[in-house]
From TrEMBL, chain A:
Residues 113-271 form the Oxidoreductase molybdopterin-binding domain. GO terms for biological process: protein repair. This is Protein-methionine-sulfoxide reductase catalytic subunit MsrP. It comes from Prochlorothrix hollandica PCC 9006 = CALU 1027. Mo-molybdopterin binds at residues 94, 97-98, 152, 187, 237, 242, 253-255. Its cofactor is Mo-molybdopterin. It comes from the Bacteria. Binds 1 Mo-molybdopterin (Mo-MPT) cofactor per subunit. It holds the Pfam family Oxidored_molyb. Belongs to the MsrP family. Keywords: Metal-binding, Molybdenum, Oxidoreductase, Signal. GO terms for molecular function: metal ion binding; molybdopterin cofactor binding; oxidoreductase activity, acting on a sulfur group of donors, quinone or similar compound as acceptor. The keyword Transport does not apply. InterPro entries: MsrP, OxRdtase_Mopterin-bd_dom, OxRdtase_Mopterin-bd_sf, TAT_signal.
């Protein structure tokens, strides 16, 4: 279990126990008992409990990550009333086809991924193009923690505490020109360490490509993650740098990014190329627009036990209705 | 009953996988989405059992050992059992027992429709797999049970539409299935030839 231990001097004023509570010992004891009971049931820990996550595998993070972690703003965005998915599930049930199509393949095969050193090519319609080291990309931004729902297009979902910074901040750093209308992202190609890229029967034309409209990318909810559960990103979750767009299906949130291009035309994304009738460019979570092969009206919130199946209703934009303004006047059944 | 031990052995072997998966599910060894894993495993298990069932006749022709045919019906019924569990798992874990979801899937989704057709076919074969039906249906029984070839094609199509990005595994099953069907073609041709020869020699020896 990884417990964040901030320096003892770093207590915030808001964390000081109010005098009235301090004086009423009985209430305080009840409160601490409730906290202890919650900590004892990791699966039930509420999403707005303080940043302590149960059963998190410890990890050795690169220097640039540790430097920033100390100043992180915890729980900047929370998911009210949601239970956070256990760390083990979020790291051992993944779609990352570069490492194989099985849900357990990424955890089994991603150990070999080389995440240090890491550079990201920034090109296209930007005023500061070039090859950036991950250190240079991350340095100007303060970390914050955001607890987001993640809805996979396969109709399962999780709730994950990410660490990182807004995508908008990174874009401002590289300076899109007036011609930039879309952002195109690319995942690493490394067949030697990514067995999925060696498969002769794969329908995917590597590298994996994703994209956003520039105004979507600039939306404050669009996020670049470098960590989760208070630690650095595990390789199978897209280390060292990945996108998180909580109102879109999970496949939009591209992992292990090596290239970011600002472009004037909509990029063709990987899944659009494979099955354009099933996966559109927008891929907004939408319970009214079904995948041709399955319903999107409901989702299995994981963990969904065998004797307690957890099938819940899917929400428009995955519950992030504040993005609706990006799509005013658009027929979302046509632009799925 | 002939081949008693062999039959019991096959029975036990076919019952082990679902029991093992149930054990894994109970002890949380299937990950956070055990229902989906069970449904997938049972579906794939049913397809493998169907291929094994279809391999019994060619094996018998090859080896002249009657044991293959002695377990053929049992294996077919195991395939049906896996499919019933696969369907129950889908209704329970994927559709969350919401009837309107199941009905919509059944009316809209090609791979569900194809799967349902394969199930109806298997159901027809399962209910007519007893001795009474064989006697009652006579010649029609054999024609009816040739439906199994169509069921194999439907099952393969059902699986193909589930695969999202890597065709490798599907291709392996499709090749095996194709080979088993091809053996039918040549076997049927061969058997017809032999029957023809026998008929010319002694018409009374013909049995179907």
């Amino acid at each position: 279990m990884l417990i964040r231990v901030p320096p003892s001097s770093r207590a915030l004023e808001s964390e000081v126990t109010p005098e009235s509570v301090y004086l009423s010992r009985r209430k305080l004891m009840q409160g601490s008992l409730a906290l202890a009971a919650m900590a004892a049931m990791p699966g039930l820990a509420s999403a707005d409990a303080q940043g302590v996550y149960a059963d998190v595998e410890p990890s050795k993070a690169p220097g640039w990550f540790d430097e920033k972690l100390a100043g992180a703003r915890w729980q900047a965005i929370t998911a009210k009333g949601e239970s956070i998915t256990p760390f083990k599930d979020a790291t051992h049930y993944n779609n990352f086809y570069e490492f194989g199509t099985g849900k357990g393949d990424p955890a089994a095969n991603a150990g070999k991924l080389q995440v240090e050193p890491w550079t990201v090519m920034v090109d296209g319609e930007v005023s500061n193009p070039g090859r950036y080291s991950i250190e240079d990309l991350v340095k100007p931004h303060a970390f914050e923690e955001r607890i987001y729902r993640l809805r996979c297009v396969e109709a399962w979902s999780m709730v994950i505490p990410w660490l990182g910074f807004p995508l908008a901040d990174l874009l401002k750093q590289v300076g899109p020109t007036s011609a930039a209308r879309y952002v195109r992202f690319e995942t690493l190609v490394d067949p030697e360490r990514m067995p999925g890229q060696r498969s002769g029967f794969s329908l995917i034309d590597w590298p994996y490509v994703e994209g956003l409209r520039l105004d979507e990318a600039m939306h404050p909810l669009a996020f670049m993650a470098v960590g989760m559960y208070g630690r650095v990103l595990p390789n199978q979750n897209g280390a060292p740098l990945r996108l998180v767009v909580p109102w879109k299906y999970g496949f939009k949130s591209i992992k292990s990014i090596v290239r970011i291009s600002l472009v004037s035309e909509a990029p063709q994304t990987t899944w659009e190329r494979i099955a354009p009738n099933e996966y559109g460019f927008y891929a907004n979570v939408n319970p009214q627009v079904d995948h041709p092969r399955w319903s999107q009206a409901t989702e299995r919130r994981l963990p969904s036990g065998l004797f307690s199946p957890n099938v819940i209703d899917t929400r428009m934009f995955n519950g992030y209705e504040e993005v609706a303004g990006l799509y005013t006047g658009m027929d979302l059944a046509r632009y799925y | 009953m002939r081949y008693r031990l062999w039959r019991v052995g096959v029975f036990l072997a076919a019952s082990v996988p679902p029991l093992y998966w149930l054990y894994c599910a109970v002890f949380n060894l299937l990950g956070p989405d055990p229902g989906k894993v069970l449904v997938d495993n049972l579906g794939l298990g049913a397809l493998i059992l169907l291929l094994i069932t279809l391999a019994m006749t060619p094996l018998q022709q090859l080896t002249r050992w009657g044991g293959w045919i002695a377990v053929r019906r049992q294996l077919g019924l195991w395939c049906f059992t896996y499919v019933v569990l696969h369907l129950s798992g889908y209704a329970l874990f994927i559709a969350g027992l919401r009837v309107e979801l199941v009905l919509r899937d059944l009316s809209e989704r090609p791979y569900i429709i194809v799967g349902a057709l394969a199930f109806i076919g298997l159901l027809a074969l399962a209910v007519t797999s007893n001795r009474f039906s064989i006697r009652k249906l006579g010649r029609k029984w054999k024609t009816l049970h040739r439906l199994v070839y169509a069921i194999l094609l439907l099952a393969l199509l059902h699986m193909l539409w589930v695969v999202r990005a890597d065709l490798g595994e599907w291709l392996a099953y499709a090749l095996i299935g194709g080979a088993l069907l091809l053996m039918r073609l040549s076997a049927v041709a061969g058997a017809l030839q032999r029957a023809g020869v026998l008929f010319r020699e002694n018409p009374k020896k013909i049995e179907i």
